[in-house]
Amino acid sequence: MSKKPVRDAAYYEDLLKRRHPIIYSELKAGKYRTVTDAAIAAGIKRTRTRLQELKNAWSKADRPEQREFLKWLQSEIKSKLPTSVVSMSSTPITIDRRLVPAVATRIREIMFKRGLKMGDVMAEMGFPRLNASLGMALFRGTRLQPELIIRLEEWLSDNATI
Prior knowledge:
The chain is mainly alpha-helical. The protein has helices at residues 9-19, 21-29, 35-42, 50-60, 63-80, 83-86, 101-114, 118-124, 133-140, 146-158, and strands spanning 94-95, 98-99. It contains ten helices and two strands; from the N terminus they run ααααααββαααα. Strands 1-2 form a two-stranded antiparallel ribbon. The chain is elongated, with a radius of gyration of 25 Å.
C-alpha cells in the first residue's frame, strides 16, 4: 500500500518556487500572509467550502463532542420546523436517520391493517409510488432523507388511531 503524499507548507512552497516564481517572490516579500494564501492565488489550491470545514471538524471531534453537536443540531432543526411538526411526537422515529425498530413495526402494522402496499404509503405522503426509500429503510435499515422523515411523522400521526 502506497503512502499518502505529504501536502504540507514546504510542498506548496516548493511548488510555488518551481511553477509560479512571481507569486513565490511576492510571498517572500510579504504580499501573502501564508503559503496557503499564495497557493490559492496561484490556483494550486482552492479555498475550502464551509461544508468541507464542517466535515473536517466532525471527523476530528471525539464522540462526546459529536453527541453534543447532534443535540444542538436537533434543537436547531426543531426550532426551524413548523410547530405542528415539532409537537407531533416526543420520541424520535429515527436515530441517525434510520428507523427505530418499534417505528418500523408500527408502520408494518398500519400497512397490514389498512391493506396498504409500500407504494400506497409513499403516495399518501406525497412521494412517487415507485420511490423505494421507505421500503429500503424498513427492510434493509438504510437512511431516510429529512423530508421523508417529516412526512412519515405526519403520516404516523394521521394513522395513530389505527
